[in-house]
């Protein structure tokens, strides 16, 4: 479908932030306010947004609800962003919405991020979802998803990412993300830094709503996964990533609010099944067993630090790293080098790719122009390999390895 190919290409290349949402709000008003026709949850934060959305999605689905999610960025295909139950939006369904509204959103000069969020809204309405979960794309206050009024707002954490748009301090970034806090809509957060919590509390007070700070629950890690302990229950998380304990704890508090305050019909068994089934591709995911190849989209400094905490149990190993230019690359690499393991730098196709080769010279590290060469050698030499960095990068590695094995990338 050539028309969709053009749409996907423009969507991929549209990285410009929106200065305000007035144009988008006016467009939605002309369309009859589709954002008001959905029961929504809103998830912001620097890291962990996707995993948090995924846990919420699986638990609500196991409880019997029809659930739609909008997440960003996509992993393998642009349709990955919009999902209802276990199915991503199909090309034809997307094309139908594009053809129906394209002339109107072009006349109103919407950004492609706004267009994408609108498409998700219309698709969710068509599919009659009970709950739509929106992940913030960038920041919060000026993000296209911020036109919704959710049942609750969730902010996972604050890290120094996208600083060119959000500011260079924790306070300024927290201020941008606190923009999702709405009047009388409670906030749940797993953030711990006082400077950020002060910003959240001030905004909650202005909006006459409450703030719940969630601390990670006790857990036990096993070879099979992680058992999250809550009161007299153990919830099994099928992951080796310790950072998921914080995300799962945040989700559990949010779900209990939906159950106890908003009267959602959510049984304990549905929560347990949801946690167990919620696997988020690209987040500390083992894509090859023998030799072990593991991928994790640790695309900023806080993400690298969280990745390192779990990666220690896989030493000795080699790390493969590549990242986009808008990150704190030197610090990310220096933290990774503290593990005193082999680190290989490599490249992948993206116009925003950092100068990886220059970085390899600066730190005297091995450089491979083609990431596939690194993977092929790891398989041939039977070398345990942990791949991390940009989500765009690890998605390419994931597709390469799974395709080689004859497995689906979905």
Spatial strand sequence of the major β-sheet: 4-3-2-5-1-6-7-8
* Total number of domains: 2
Give me the count of strands: 17
Q: Considering DSSP H and I runs of 4 or more, what fraction of the residues is helical?
A: 40-55%
Q: Main beta sheet, described?
A: 8 strands, mixed
The CATH topology of the largest domain is given as UDP-N-acetylmuramoyl-L-alanine:D-glutamate ligase
What's the CATH H-level superfamily name of the largest domain?
A: Mur-like, catalytic domain
Distance between the termini: 21 Å
- Second CATH tier, the architecture of the largest domain: 3-Layer(aba) Sandwich
> Compute the gyration radius: what is it?
21 Å
Question: Looking at the structure, what is the overall shape?
Answer: globular
Individual helix count: 15
What report would you give on this structure?
- With 410 residues, the protein is an alpha/beta fold.
- The chain has 2 domains: 276 residues, Mur-like, catalytic domain (UDP-N-acetylmuramoyl-L-alanine:D-glutamate ligase); 120 residues, Protein-Tyrosine Phosphatase, Chain A.
- Helices cover 42% and strands 16% of the residues.
- The protein is built from 15 helices and 17 strands.
- The strands form 3 sheets. Strands 4-3-2-5-1-6-7-8 form an 8-stranded mixed sheet, with helices on both faces.
- Strand 10 and strand 11 form a beta hairpin.
């Amino acid at each position: 479908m050539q028309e969709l190919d053009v749409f996907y290409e423009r969507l991929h290349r549209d990285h410009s932030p929106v200065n305000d949402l007035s144009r988008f709000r006016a467009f939605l008003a002309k369309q009859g306010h589709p954002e008001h026709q959905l029961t929504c949850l809103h998830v912001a934060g620097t890291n962990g947004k996707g995993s948090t959305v995924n846990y919420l999605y699986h638990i609500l689905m196991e409880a019997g609800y029809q659930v739609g999610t909008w997440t960003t960025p996509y992993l393998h295909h642009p349709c990955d962003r919009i999902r209802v139950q276990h199915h991503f939006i199909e090309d034809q369904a997307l094309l139908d919405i594009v053809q129906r509204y394209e002339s109107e959103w072009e006349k109103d000069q919407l950004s492609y991020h706004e267009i994408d969020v609108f498409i998700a809204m219309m698709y969710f309405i068509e599919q009659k979802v009970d709950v739509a979960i929106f992940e913030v794309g960038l920041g919060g206050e000026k993000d296209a998803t911020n036109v919704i009024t959710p049942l609750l707002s969730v902010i996972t954490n604050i890290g120094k990412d996208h600083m060119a748009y959000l500011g260079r301090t924790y306070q300024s970034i927290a201020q941008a993300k606190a923009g999702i806090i709405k009047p009388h809509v409670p906030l749940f957060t797993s953030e711990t830094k006082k400077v950020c919590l002060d910003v959240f509390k001030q905004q909650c007070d202005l909006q006459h709503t409450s703030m719940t700070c969630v601390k990670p629950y006790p857990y036990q890690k096993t070879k099979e996964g992680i058992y999250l302990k809550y009161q007299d229950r153990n919830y099994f998380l099928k992951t080796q990533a310790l950072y998921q304990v914080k995300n799962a704890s945040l989700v559990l508090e949010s779900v209990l609010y939906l159950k106890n305050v908003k009267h959602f019909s959510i049984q304990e068994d549905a929560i347990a099944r949801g946690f167990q089934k919620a696997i988020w591709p690209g987040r500390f995911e083992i894509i090859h067993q023998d030799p072990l190849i593991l991928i994790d989209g640790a695309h900023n400094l806080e993400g690298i630090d969280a990745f390192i905490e779990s990666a220690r149990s896989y030493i000795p190993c080699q790390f493969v790293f590549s990242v986009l230019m808008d990150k704190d690359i030197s610090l990310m690499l220096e933290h990774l080098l503290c593990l005193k393991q082999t680190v290989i730098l490599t490249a992948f196709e993206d116009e925003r790719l950092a100068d990886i080769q220059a970085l390899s010279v600066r730190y005297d590290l091995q450089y491979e122009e083609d990431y596939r060469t690194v993977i092929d050698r790891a398989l041939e030499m039977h070398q345990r390999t942990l791949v991390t960095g940009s989500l765009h990068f690890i998605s390419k590695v994931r597709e390469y390895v799974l395709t080689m094995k004859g497995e689906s990338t979905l």
